[in-house]
Inverse folding.
């Protein structure tokens, strides 16, 4: 199974450790139970022998005492307490010896060996940490860090994230007014990003009105706020209007999925994503991304550090790692494109171009193959012909 996230890999590793621990704990309980059973058997035989001695009337002859003790010895030998205890303890010791090895393999006790002397811009680091606190709504903590570190410029996004958390706090009590106000203010920007967040807000509000059973209020809300979206979202609007006919029995309507609580549960994440997009920010903070990527790449760094243990100075002086550190697609933001024809790396002056056949070449390669004119040329990887005008720039 392919592990898609750091959390998946971590959960899998923890499950292995947990299963091994539970197996050791089970063996320990069995060993303890067996030991107690053997102790009880030995105690019973000794107590039985003492009872036999006390049951004899009058003074007991040495011969009688010896016979009782001899019988006790035979019974204890038959129990074979030592063999029974050694057997269960041996099984426990085998699993106990494996468990520390698994822990050592799963959780490296010395990650410092992966340390490399990399120059950091501490101003940027402070800003990243402070912005992370603002994203989490920890404004007092962010302000404290900025004041102590002397990074006043790090407050640039404070007011925006404060507005975001005020909106999210209102959503928790199903108050959509702040969210709707923000979406209305940024309506054009949201449209350019292909977002229909404003419609989703009105949909949530409209469904709440339907639940309240006020048909007149629902019709008025639909005319006032839903009708402007009909041109682009007619099907969605029709589903909402039909629900008015099912007022009082919405659970039986053909569109009862509109009542699902998941709409409210997913909405804060959708709003946060669109909010951050308008700010030009990633949905996840730079700090959380850096830590998650570091966790995923740590096994490779540990292995490399162990291999180069004898070359410590060389390891510390490296400016570039000798092996690639494979990370998931969620950590690939600025991929490097190398033209398969010219073998040159894409740049702003020589960007990658998507051909109609979906093959990608650098602009200079396409220009050379078309000989600088608008006439068609054949793709070097398939029979499709194209012109420069038909090729689309991907980025840069």
């Amino acid at each position: 199974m392919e592990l898609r996230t750091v959390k998946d890999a971590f959960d899998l590793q923890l499950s292995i450790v947990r299963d091994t621990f539970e197996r050791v704990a089970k063996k320990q309980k069995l060993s303890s139970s067996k030991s107690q059973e053997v102790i009880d058997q030995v105690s019973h035989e000794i107590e039985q022998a003492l009872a036999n001695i006390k049951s004899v009337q009058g003074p007991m002859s040495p011969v009688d005492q010896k016979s009782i003790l001899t019988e006790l010895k035979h019974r204890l030998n038959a129990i074979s307490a030592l063999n029974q205890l050694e057997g269960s303890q041996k099984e426990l010791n085998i699993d106990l010896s494996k468990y520390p090895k698994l822990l050592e393999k799963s959780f490296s006790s010395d990650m410092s060996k992966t340390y490399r002397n990399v120059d950091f811009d501490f101003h940027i680091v402070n800003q990243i940490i402070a912005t992370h606190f603002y994203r989490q709504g920890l404004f007092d903590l962010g302000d404290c860090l900025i004041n102590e570190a002397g990074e006043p410029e790090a407050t640039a996004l404070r007011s925006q994230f404060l507005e975001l958390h005020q909106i999210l706090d209102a959503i928790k009590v199903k108050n959509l007014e702040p969210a709707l106000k923000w979406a209305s203010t940024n309506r054009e920007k949201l449209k350019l990003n292909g977002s229909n967040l404003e419609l989703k807000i009105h949909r949530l509000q409209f469904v709440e009105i339907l639940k309240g059973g006020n048909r007149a209020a629902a019709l008025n809300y639909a005319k006032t706020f839903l009708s402007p979206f009909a041109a682009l979202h007619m099907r969605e609007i029709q589903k909402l209007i039909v629900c008015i006919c099912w007022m009082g029995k919405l659970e039986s309507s053909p569109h009862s999925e509109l009542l699902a609580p998941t709409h409210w549960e997913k909405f804060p994440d959708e709003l946060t994503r669109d909010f951050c997009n308008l700010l030009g920010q990633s949905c996840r903070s730079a700090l959380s991304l850096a830590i998650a990527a570091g966790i995923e790449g740590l096994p490779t760094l540990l292995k490399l550090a162990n291999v180069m243990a004898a070359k410590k100075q060389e390891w510390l002086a490296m400016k570039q790692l000798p092996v690639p550190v494979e990370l998931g697609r969620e950590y690939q933001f600025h991929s490097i494109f190398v033209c398969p024809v010219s073998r040159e790396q894409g740049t702003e002056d020589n960007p990658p171009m998507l051909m109609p056949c979906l093959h990608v070449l650098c602009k200079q390669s396409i220009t050379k193959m078309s000989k600088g004119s608008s006439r068609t040329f054949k793709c070097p990887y398939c029979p499709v012909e194209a012109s420069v005008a038909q090729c689309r720039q991907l980025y840069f």
